[in-house]
Amino acid sequence: MTRQDREPRTRHPALLGPRIVAGVLLALGALLIVSALGIARGGGYSVIGPATIPLVVAIGLLVLSVLFAVRTSISPDADLATLAADEEALTHWPTVGLIGLTLVAYALALDGFAIGPLDVPSLGYIVATALFLPVTARVLGSKAPIRDVIAGLAIAVGVYIGFTEFLGVRLPAGILGPVL
Amino acid sequence: MDVLGDLAGGFGTALSLENLLFAAVGVTLGTLVGVLPGIGPAVTVALLLPLTFNFEPTGAFIMFAGIYYGGMYGGSTTSILLNTPGESASVVTTIEGFQMAKRGRGGAALATAAIGSFVAGTISTLAITFLAPVIAGVARSFQPADYVGLMVVAFVSITALLGRSLLRGMISLFLGLFVGLIGIDNLTGQQRFTFGVPQLANGLDVVVVAVGLFAVGEALYVASRLRHDREEIVPVRGSLLMSRDELRRSWKPWLRGAALGFPIGALPAGGAEVPTFLSYGLEKRLNPKAPWGEGAIEGVAGPESANNAAFSGVLVPLLTLGIPTSATAAILLVAFRIYNLQPGPLLFTNSPELVWALIASLYIGNAMLLLLNLPLIRLWVKILSIPRAVLYSGILVFATLGVYSLANSLVDVLIMYIVGVVGFFMRRYDFPVGPMILGVILGPLLEAQFRRALQISQGDLTIFLTRPISAILLLTAVAALLLPYLPRLLGRGQRLVFGTGSED
Predict the structure, then answer these.
(1) With an 8 Å Cβ cutoff, are B430 and A83 in contact?
(2) B499 found inside a domain
(3) What residues of chain B, 155 to 174, have a C-beta less than 8 Å from chain A?
(4) Which chain B residues are closer than 8 Å to A141 by Cβ?
(5) What is the DSSP letter of B213?
(6) Is B223 close to A96, i.e. CB distance below 8 A?
(7) Is residue B307 part of a domain?
């Protein structure tokens, strides 16, 4: 315990992030306990049933989450607060959000998807990847779009040919199917 | 003599043209990913797993071993030239290595790291050669209760000794245990933690979890702060060779590093980080006249050979007991299982050709690394100048590719991204990711052995304390748990920290 540990919690606005994490962990712990209690006991097969270890893990996680919640509120961890403050100052959230979006779009474009009547076919590996790489590089702050497009095309075509022709791994041909 | 005969047979297999090629691909790929920040040997092996399904196991493992070693070596390059450790076991190297690079001795620092890695790697491979069969022999008498003890030691030591916070390490471990439990229970067929989602019934593929946690998590984390981090690459100036004086100052730290690294790596408390810190401290004490903080070559030579030796040491519990003590070893264990091989005492009797070819390939890989790396240093340095934006976009492309090619499943890819977001927050708030991946892989094994042990004892929990081996192991686990708090228990002082626990 250092002196900072005992300062009032208002001095640690940076702990907001860790508090959210603590909340999520608590919710997960509780959910797991409910879920573990719902596992049917497999009678007689073994001394330890299928529910025992899940229950131990769920309780362990919940207890640890409570301890972590305490360390972000009642008895703040000064070390963690400093770290969280540094992180917050350095984080550019829009980048993280946009990368998340491009990733999901990439996965959907790769595999195709169907929502209700909307049935979008796969764009195929080459097209999806050749689009994803330059867009992501741009989100990450690249200022050389032509280079990125070339890199994307090269990787997409190289991987597709290498994987399907030489490694025997199937990748979706998608809209380029008739050509390939 | 027996061992030498087996080893000769191993060399016979490993020296075939095909296997030499696998070794060369492995060490090159390993060095490449070691040099690239953000992806390490664990992710690389995980990403390559789906590609090697059609390979013959010996070749695949020779390649994996090369990646393992190469990654460790490549990590030192970024430490020295960028002041950014490529792997956590290279953290210590940055202290003196970057200072050497700034003073125009970057070439010598890279050389001492390469030669030290070779020396230590070869010494520890010798140790594996003679030690592993002996341990495998002893381990044949191990019972389920003893394995439970071993795994508890591995869990406790990786969470308690590494990372800045025991609490966060434990949370990471328990998250891993939870993920490991998802799916249908082998023994009873009950669904556990599947929440009614049919895709979860078969559990989460370890590759999905590892790639998400390491590659996607790291890419998101770097992306979040790319606008602020500015890196400075120190160009390699001057000779790549060490001067006579530098050589004279290096060889003792090499040997001491190997002597520290191997046994610590081989303990089920292993990992490659701890010995690097110990080696740095030891060299500092033994060479008080060296220019510490201003580029002391001893501070590069010792830790670099220690981490290589420890890396080999980690293979001992993996091969002989089936217990991985680092994230990379955990992924290797998964690789063994894909080929229906169970590492453990029986591996030496059931698949002697594979084991001995693997061990022989360690000698070959080490020699290859030395031959490959010293002349290619300038090329590796070029790789460091790939723009970060393109590099991380590329990492995301390959992460997606690796997971998608597992089963062409959109769900797998989306789960990997979710795990990646978890990994992002873990990095952000300093939760070590190593314990989580170990939990995912070892958790189910621990449960299986635990149930088996209790079946033997007919439900009597005291079996873990009455069997001497498991009792001693559990005591060791308690000791490992208390060790970091020793200074505080004795009066004053900080909690001991042995590493960051973020080995990937």
Answers:
(1) yes
(2) no
(3) 164-165, 167-168, 170-171, 174
(4) 226-227, 389
(5) I
(6) yes
(7) yes
Q: Give percent of chain B with pLDDT exceeding 90.
A: 14
Under 8 Å between Cβ of A19 and A72: yes
Query: So what's the pLDDT on residue B38?
Result: 65
Residue B169 pLDDT greater than 60, yes or no: yes
Residue B320, both tokens: 């002989």
Which residues of chain B are within 8 Å of residue A106 when distances are taken between CB atoms?
396, 400
Kindly state whether residue B420 falls inside one of the protein's structural domains: yes
Contact B177 A57 (CB under 8 A): yes
Residue of A nearest to B196 (CA): A35
Structural domain span for residue B392: 2-489
Q: Provide the domain count of chain B.
A: 1
Q: Identify which has the larger pLDDT, A77 or B471.
A: B471
B19 within a domain of the structure (yes/no): yes
Is A68 within 8 Å of chain B by CB? yes
Contact A54, B446 (CB under 8 A): no
Q: What is the DSSP letter of B233?
A: P
DSSP assignment of B32-52 equals HHHHSTT--HHHHHHHHGGGG
| pLDDT given for residue B42 in this prediction | 80
Predicted pLDDT of residue B292: 85
The ipTM estimated for the assembled molecules is: 0.89
User: Which of 119-158 (A) contact B at CB < 8 A?
Assistant: 129, 132-134, 136-142, 144, 147-148, 151, 155
Burial string for A109-124 (b: 16+ CB within 10 Å, else e) reads: bbbbeeeeeeeeebbb
Q: Where are the domains of chain A?
A: 3-90, 93-176
Helix (H, G, I), strand (E, B) or coil at A99: helix
pLDDT at B230: 59
Sort out which chain A residues have CB atoms less than 8 A from B165's CB and list them: 77, 79-80
CB pairs under 8 A between A and B: 199
Nearest to A172 by CA among A112, A90, A87: A112
pTM to 2 decimals? 0.87
Nearest one of B326, B290, B280, B226 to B90, comparing CA atoms: B280
CA distance A20 to A3: 25
pLDDT at B224: 86
Q: Per-residue pLDDT tens, chain A, 180 aa: give them.
A: 444 444 444 455 678 889 999 999 999 999 999 999 888 765 555 567 888 899 999 999 999 999 999 988 888 888 888 888 888 888 888 889 999 999 999 999 998 887 777 778 889 999 999 999 999 999 988 888 999 999 999 999 999 998 888 877 888 888 887 777
At B47 the pLDDT is 77
Helices (H) and strands (E) in chain B, counts: 22, 2
Per the model's pLDDT, the better-predicted residue between B172 and B370 turns out to be B172
**Residue A83 in contact with partner chain B when CB distance is under 8 A:** yes
Q: Residue A111 in contact with residue A159, Cβ under 8 Å?
A: no
Q: Distance between CA B211 and CA B214 in Å, rounded?
A: 5
State how far the Cα of B36 lies from the Cα of B113, in Å rounded to an integer.
17
Of A58, A90, A108, the CB nearest to B228: A90
Would you call B342 an interface residue with chain A, using a CB distance cutoff of 8 Å? no
**B381 pLDDT more than 80:** no
How much is the mean pLDDT over chain B?
A: 84
Half-sphere exposure in the Cβ direction for B330 (13 Å, CA): 33
Confidence (pLDDT) at A4:
45
Contacts of A46 in chain B (CB under 8 A): 187-188, 451, 454-455
- Considering only alpha carbons, which residue of chain A is nearest residue B229? A90
Model pLDDT, residue A8: 46
B141 CB-contact burial (10 Å; exposed 0-12 / middle 13-18 / buried 19+): exposed
Alpha helices in A15-120 (DSSP H): 16-37, 52-72, 78-90, 93-111
